[in-house]
Amino acid sequence: MKRIILLFLFTSITASADTIDHFMNIVNNIPQMEMKADPQSQAWARSARNILALTSESIAESLVLANESATRAGRPLFCLPSGTALSADNVNHLIQQTYREISSQQSDKNKMTVSQVALLGMSKQYPCKQSNPQVAQFHQTIARMGHSG
């Protein structure tokens, strides 16, 4: 069951996922495009915001579903506080914050998918009291990426 959940999370989500460097490039270009006066730049910025919102919403829903399955198996990926809802805005912010906090080399960090960064952020922001070996292994893998040379 654990493998099915992890397989679902890392393959079905990432099958159409993009790397975090593309996601962050969009994030960083939105303010620049909003500053321009031409209608095309303004339209690009609006479209880019919508794409980020849809991406974040999709990732949030996928993470919630994967976490529900993992929780039923006794191995939650993260533990949201009671009454905390996972919104697209929260996930978008968490993805950006986590990306900035990852200490791995830039090239390794940028090869991660948006979903991987989101899962890393969720498990760090909302850790569970019980130990989950799969999440711990994921954190160790990310840490090793930062030390590769």
Number of strands: 0
Provide the residue-averaged pLDDT. Answer: 81
Assign the structural class, choosing from mainly alpha, mainly beta, alpha/beta, alpha+beta, or little secondary structure.
Answer: mainly alpha
Beta-strand share of residues: under 5%
Q: What does this protein look like?
A:
The protein has 149 residues and is mostly helical. The protein has one domain. The chain has helices at 2-15, 20-35, 39-72, 88-101, 106-110, 114-125, 133-147. The longest helix is centred in the middle third of the chain and has 34 residues, at 39-72. The model is unreliable at 5-16 (pLDDT under 50).
Question: Brief overview, please?
Answer:
The chain is built from seven helices and no strands.
Essential attributes:
mainly alpha; 149 residues
SSE order and pairing:
Elements: H1 2-15, H2 20-35, H3 39-72, H4 88-101, H5 106-110, H6 114-125, H7 133-147
